[in-house]
Amino acid sequence: MKEGSIYKPRAISGYPEWLPEYRAVELSWLDSIRKVFESFGYCSIETPAVEELQVLTSKGESSDKEIYCISRLNGEEKNAELGLHYDLTVPFARYVAQHYNDLDFPFKRYQMQKVWRGERPQEGRFREFYQCDVDVVNHESLPLFFDIEIATIMYQALLSLPLGPLDIKLSNRKILEGFLAGLKIENPNEAIRVLDKLDKIGVDGVYKILNQSLSEEQSKQCLELAKIQSNNFVKEVTNLGVKNDTLSQGLDELSEVFSALDQKSFSIDLSIARGFDYYSGTIFEAKLKNYPHFSTVAAGGRYDKLASSFIKQDLPGIGMSIGLTRIFSKLLAEGKIEAKAKSPTQVLVSWLEADQKEKVQKISEKLRAKGINVEAYHCVDKLKKQIKYADRKGISYIIFPASSLNPKDEVKNMQTGEQTSIDIENWTI
Amino acid sequence: MKEGSIYKPRAISGYPEWLPEYRAVELSWLDSIRKVFESFGYCSIETPAVEELQVLTSKGESSDKEIYCISRLNGEEKNAELGLHYDLTVPFARYVAQHYNDLDFPFKRYQMQKVWRGERPQEGRFREFYQCDVDVVNHESLPLFFDIEIATIMYQALLSLPLGPLDIKLSNRKILEGFLAGLKIENPNEAIRVLDKLDKIGVDGVYKILNQSLSEEQSKQCLELAKIQSNNFVKEVTNLGVKNDTLSQGLDELSEVFSALDQKSFSIDLSIARGFDYYSGTIFEAKLKNYPHFSTVAAGGRYDKLASSFIKQDLPGIGMSIGLTRIFSKLLAEGKIEAKAKSPTQVLVSWLEADQKEKVQKISEKLRAKGINVEAYHCVDKLKKQIKYADRKGISYIIFPASSLNPKDEVKNMQTGEQTSIDIENWTI
C-alpha cells in the first residue's frame, strides 16, 4: 500500500464483530456459562487454534471441506500441514490422548473458544464463532450419572442466558439402533439419518424415502417409533412389539435419565439422532421455543470412543456444545439483545477546577480499591459536558470532589438525578 | 487416515498449551488483568482472528514475513486474501476506522486475544500467544492525563500478577527526536534505532555505529543523552546545551508524567525508543527485575495517528500491550508458577450408600445455589477412594450426607483433617 493512501476496511462476511455495548453482553454470556461449568467442577482447558491436518482429518472425509489451512505469507518453509480447528471435540480428543498420563479421570473439562469453518456464510452460519463445550471422559466405563449431569449443565447454562423458554429433546441412540436391529434392517445408519429429518420433511416425506429400501411394514414401524414423544414412551415402544436387548437397555437408560431431569424443559423425542455416527447412548438437543424454525442452539450426547484415532484406550464420554455466536447473533438480529452500557465504568469522578487534579486521582484510587470501576474525567471541562459524557457511556454515578462550588464531596445518581454530599471513605455503590 | 489406525499426536512447536492445573493459573492471570482494565473504565472489544491482507500489511513491509494466510483445504474459491492478525493494534485501528461513527470518544478499550506470528520458535517466542492490550484514542488531541493513566494501568496490571519486582523505564520520543534535530542530524530514525540498543551492545558498540554516519561531536552528544537515567534528567539534558522546541516539550511532558507515577517502579531512561516509528511522545517498557536478561514483558506509548491507513481523521492515542504468554511461559520454565488445583471444585459431596442418591443431588444443588463449585461424586464408592479423589483434584472440603454411619450431615476439611457435623442450610465455605 502506498504511503498516505487510505484503504477503507470492510466487514468480512462470516466473521462477526460487535460494538462495545453488545460485546459487553457477549462477555457477560461467556461469564455466565463459565460460572455454570465451574459450579459443577469442570476445569478449563484451552487448545491452540491450530492442529496438525492429520489430527483435523482423523474423523473422515466429511469435514475436510470446512478446514482452513494456514501458511506463511512470504514463507520459504512449507507449512501447509496445519489448519484451524473447526470444533472443540477433535482438539479435546487430541489433548486427552497427548496428555493422557498427566490427567485425572474421570476428566471433566470445559472449553470456550472460537472455531473456524470454511462455509459459505448464510443466516446463522459463520466462519468464525464461539463454541462452549463441556465433556467428561473416563477409562473403560462412565456411569449414567454423567448423562444426567451433562444434560443438567446444558440446561442450566442456557437458563443463565436471557433466551426465553427452552425446548430440549431427549432420546437414546440405543433405542433407534436396537429397534432397527430388531426389525432386521441391514443399513441402520441410513434409516437413522432419514428419521432424524422427521420434523423437517414430515411423516409422508420420511415414509417415502424409507420405503425405497425398506418393506412397508419396516417403514411403518420405524415411523411409529420415531413419532413417540410421550413421557409414557417405554410402554408405547413396548407396544410396537419389537424385541431387542439394545433396545431394552436404551429404554432403561432413557427412563433413568429423563426421570432425573426437569420435565418442564426436557421432553422425549425418539426421532432425534444427532447425525454423527459416534453417539452411542443418551442424546439431547435444545431449541428456543420462541424460534421453532431456528436451528438447534445446543446439543450433546454420549460416545464410546472419544480419542480412538489417537490412542488405544477406550475412552467413553459424554459432552455437549453450545453454539454461542449462533444464538447471540440470532437474538441480536431479532432485536432481543438489550445493549449494555458502552463502558464498564460505574462511577465518573468529575474534574471542574484545575486545582482538583490530585483530589480527582485520590478519590478514583480509593473507589477502585473498593472494587468499583471508576473513570477519572480526563481534563478540566464544563459540568454539562461531563454529565453528557457519563450519560452517553451509561455511567450510573458522578462524584463531584469538594470545590469552591461544593464544600463537601458530592455524588449524583444519574438515574434519579438526586445529588447528595458524601463521605468518600464510607461511600460505595 | 485409515479406519482403526492410531495417529500419535505431537505438540506443535510454538503453539503452547497447558495442563489444567496451569491453565487455571493462566485463566486467573487473564481475570486479574481484565479486572484492572475494567476498574479504569476501559471496555472490552474482540476482533476476528482474521483480517484482510490489505489491512494487515498496511503498516509497511517489515511485518509481512510474520503473517499467516488462511485458505480452504479443499476450497474451489480462492481465499488467500485473509490472514491471522499478528498483533492487536492493527485490528484495533481497523475497528476504530470501520465503526468510527458508532464509537464514543475518547474511546477507551481493552482487548485480550491470541495473535499469530510465523516466526521461528525460540525461547520466549511463540507462533500463537496472548496479548493484553489497552488503548485510548481521541479525535484531534488527547490530554497528557492519559499517558499517566495508561502507564498506571500497565503497572497495576503487572502488579496484580505474581511477577516479583518490576523495572519500568520511561522516556519521551520528543526528547531524542528534538535533541537529534537540535544537533542537525539528518537521519534521526537511524540514530534512534542504534541508541535503542544501548543496553544490548553497550556504549562503545553504539558509539562505533553512530560514528559511521555522524561526527565525533554528534555521536558523543547522542551517547551523553542516551546515558541519562536520573530523576534529575531535565537539568542533565539542559546541561548538554542543545536547544530545540520539540526537546523542551518532551522534557516538560516527561516531567509531568514521571512525577505522577510510582517512582519505586518507574525510572527514567532516555535511551529507550520502542523501535516502531509511530511512537511520538511518552514511551515506557517493563522488565522483570528478577530476570534482567529476559526481554521486555510489557510496553507502550503515545502515537499521533492510529488509523491513518484507514481513515482521514487524525486519531492520537496512547496504549500498551502485555505479552502474557511470554511472561507465563518464562516463569513456568523457571519453576516459578505454582500449579493450582486440577479442578475448580471447592466441595465434593460423597456418595457412600446407594440410597443417598437423591440426597447427594439435593445437597449439591443447595451449595451451588450459594455460589460454591460442587462436584457430586459420580457413583457409590469406597470412602477411601472418594477421599483420594478429592485429594488428587485439590478439593478443600468433602461433605458426607447423613447415612447409616453418620446420623447428621458432616463436612471434612481436607487441609486440617477435621470432620464436624453441619446444618447444610447454613453452612458455607
Give your account of this protein's structure.
2 copies of one chain form a homodimer. With 429 residues, chain A is of the alpha/beta class. The first copy, chain A, is built from 13 helices and 16 strands. An 8-stranded mixed beta sheet of chain A has the order 1-5-6-11-10-9-7-8. In chain A, strand 12 (347-349), helix 12 (357-369) and strand 13 (374-376) form a beta-alpha-beta unit. The longest helix of chain A has 20 residues, at 20-39. At the A-B interface, helix 1, strand 1, strand 2, helix 2 and strand 3 of A face helix 1, strand 1, strand 2, helix 2 and strand 3 of B. Strand 3 of chain A pairs antiparallel with strand 3 of chain B.
Order of helices and strands of chain A: HEEHEEHEEHEHHHHHHEEEEHEHEHEEE
Q: What class, by secondary structure content of chain A?
A: alpha/beta
Report, as a whole number of angstroms, the end-to-end distance of chain A.
50 Å
Largest contact between chains = A-B, 98 and 97 residues
Task: Return Rg of chain A in Å.
Answer: 28 Å
Low-confidence stretches of chain A: none
The oligomeric state is homodimer
Q: In what range is the share of β-strand residues of chain A?
A: 15-25%
The helix count of chain A comes to 13
Mean pLDDT of chain A: 93
Strand element count of chain A: 16
What coarse outline of chain A follows from CA principal-axis ratios?
Answer: elongated
Biggest sheet of chain A, in brief? 8 strands, mixed
Helix content of chain A: 25-40%
Order of strands, widest sheet of chain A: 1-5-6-11-10-9-7-8
